[in-house]
Amino acid sequence: MADARPLNIPIIIGTVRRGRMTAHAARFIFGELSKYAGVATELIDIAELPLRTDDAGEATKDPGFSAKMNEADALVIVSPEYNHSIPGLLKHVLDSCLKEYIHKAVGVVGVSAGPFGGARMIENLLPVLRELGLVAIFWDVNFGNVSKVFDEAGNLLEPAYVRRAEKFLKELVWMAKTLRYGRENIPAG
Ligand SMILES: Cc1cc2nc3c(=O)[nH]c(=O)nc-3n(C[C@H](O)[C@H](O)[C@H](O)COP(=O)(O)O)c2cc1C
Question: What is the DSSP letter of 98?
Fold first, then answer.
């Protein structure tokens, strides 16, 4: 199953809030994923997308975001927990594509001020991901009490997250490879 093409795994920053701690978590995951040989990654900041809010669903598709989703083999979604769910604008962005996601892997990183690391947000996001055709892995990374995990400059204060990120990313890379093989070699039923 050797493949010369790198796996393409972009990381979505799932909130536009000014001062968001989620950006620190996303940059940390970006740094860890960048260490993997054979993986190409980038940060996609939903705050930088030309978001249309005068319509919904695929009518709001941004060609740039759509192309990135088409090219992706897997996604990492880094999202805060807002009232136990995902930010509305993240849902709006995810809803703008559909066929772009099908049979691709996704891993979710939760970020919260509270102790549960976005666990309730993740539980609410999973059925959405399934409906979009994405395949969620069974590891998450949970940044609970996030103001104690990163300093204001975004430096990681809790080294245990390096091992947690590794477990998560190894599984995601495996699933990305497996699903790429399936998309390219096994006819869909
Ligand atoms: C609208 C809104 C709702 C929130 N709801 C929750 C929540 O349900 N649980 C929680 O632990 N933190 C909640 N928070 C706090 C965020 O978890 C906190 O801001 C954290 O830093 C992650 O979000 P950030 O990337 O916006 O900083 C909420 C914040 C906002 C702005």
Answer: S
